[in-house]
Amino acid sequence: MKSTECAGTPLTQLKGVGHARAQALFRTGIETAEQLVTYYPRDYEDRRELTPIANVKIGDSVMIRAKLVNTPSTFRKGRLAITRARAEDGTGHIQLVWFNQAYISKNLEAGREYVFIGRADHKYNTLSLLSPKWKEALDDERGILPIYPLKEGLTQDFLRQTMRQALELPTLREYMPVEIRSRYRLAEYSYASHQIHFPDTPEDVDLAKARLVFDELFMLRLALLQVKNNRIFAKNGYRIPPAPDEAKLRDRLGFALTKAQERTVQEILADLDSDKAMNRLVQGDVGSGKTAVAMIALFAAARAGRQAVMMAPTEVLAKQHYQNIRDLMEPLGVRVGFLSGSLTAAQKRDADEKIQLGLYDIVIGTHSLIQENVEYARLGLVITDEQHRFGVRQRAALAAKSEMPNVLVMTATPIPRTLAMVLYGDMDISVLDEKPPGRTPVSTYCVNSDFETRIDNFIAKQVRAGHQVYIICPAVTESETGDLHTVMEYGAFLAKEVFPEFKVGLLYGAMKNAEKEQVMQAFYDGEIQILVSTTVVEVGVDVPNANLIVIQNAERFGLAQLHQLRGRVGRGKAESYCVLMTDSEQVLTRRRMKVLVDSEDGFFIAEEDLRLRGAGDLFGLRQHGLPELHLADLARDLPTLRDAGEAAAAVLRDDPDLSLEGHYLLKQKVQEYIARGDETAL
Length: 682
Ligand code: ADP
Ligand code: MG
Prior knowledge:
Bound molecules: adenosine-5'-diphosphate, magnesium ion
Number of helices: 23
Radius of gyration: 31 Å
Largest sheet: 7 strands, parallel
Strand content: 15-25%
Shape: globular
Number of strands: 21
Structural class: alpha/beta
Strand order of the largest sheet: 11-12-10-13-14-9-15
């Protein structure tokens, strides 16, 4: 992270912030005083109501403001150290009692005034506050106080004091155009910032939140639209026409494209055949046939004399793609290469050289393909299969490698339309909403552990019939509570006790890459019959011969993830099965499992997941190269998201570059936002 990229007031300019404290804030991602203001309270402490001691009743949780009459003294009773003191406030006396906190006597001073918060009880024959929290009584301790999430090196007092200063900065100015504020009835910015931290009343918190949630979503949309419209990326000055002999390639595919594939191919070919750089997302459920679509684009680039690369998230998948594409295209005279981290140094050098000399038309591989030392002759198309998304910075890095290449991102993670608009707002989107014909549905069942033996027998039956089986566990090694199935223990148990006659393999994320690839390869080659794995198999491997997946502790996974896991099977001709094992009796779990049992429509499942579970971290903004949302929740705040999106589009319609005088502050804010998001991008 380069702090120079963020314009703003250095934290150390605030009183009481030295190097150590600034570092502690830096570790939470805060670099400037302006950013500190977006470190929002997780809760509030209402100190408006002080109770006079005379009114304190046993059982009440109260806050009193009182003078300490004597220095706290400690006596022992068995293993317990009991510290007591008396306090008075002019209306009465009360005893303060702490257990095993003898140090209190060092911190509290007789004769001074404090605020004590605690529960009143009758103890040692008198009215007492039990283990009260205490604060020195200052005037500004009245009112509603923020409670911040604390990280190492930060304290409430420090954050409160520092926040008060940051809120007084002259740089904290209204940047939202007045039409938008009045149209969506938004509170003024500095009012909202003050009230979210130090509210006058709980109602003020609501008003402040409404404004700030709007801001977050507005910024998100505006930034994405800006990036999408950005001229630097938009024009690349060359065209890739459809391959003149595309029909030959299609013939070799051995099937006719579905309507959805055909539509998507046409959208991609139109993008390629323009002087603007493509930036397109193809969303298609597992098995919808994204690879064939990619192949036609790769072929067009190769024929046009532009290099094309395709990246996969794992070596095994990359190798599979490589073999398929090579077999398909080499007979047509296309030179296909492979590059990944697993190559020997000599092989890598050889591949690098061939890429640089333009001896490969198409290169398939892993993320190593866009690493800095790889130089392309004429890179014209980059396709990523699953998971990777290009942030602004990665795209800039690509642009530096050659003229801005066309970018195609393929994902099988179904995202509800409303959210796709947010997360991929900077891209054009194609949707493969149709599966190739002749697919047998995956029969899905949800059962509890009473069925364990029957499931084991079913697994054995499938393996004996020549099929392969996945068993998914939520954890790798013994969990603290011991109630989860683990790859290590459960896997070893299955191998030894249940399926001694079969070959059982284990797979999990923490394994060395080479080992992981080896296991996946062995499963792919059929040497492993039962693969016990964590969710690393989610997108890592494509084994048509596997026709059964058993998911242990299914309640532990998100619906979208379960759907993705289920997509590992049903890829071949055989009848396929997914068994969700869970002993959870929770209503929500039952409902979520039912969604999967009833449906195989990824988009429907994603929408249900969002509805049942909330957005949470499901869509990992960071992974998308966007700053995280602090206040907004994509599931809960969908209506605001719509408003904010509408507002952002309206602003850019009238002023595409935000060059109008009235948009000056807004423009600054967006630029900073984009820079910040790019820094956090993976
Ligand atoms: P995904 O979208 O999950 O990447 P793939 O591209 O791997 O899907 O395709 C899944 C399977 O469907 C592959 O075996 C592929 O050959 C086959 N396939 C793709 N398109 C069609 C089609 N139009 N008709 C028949 N089979 C197809
Ligand atoms: Mg695929």
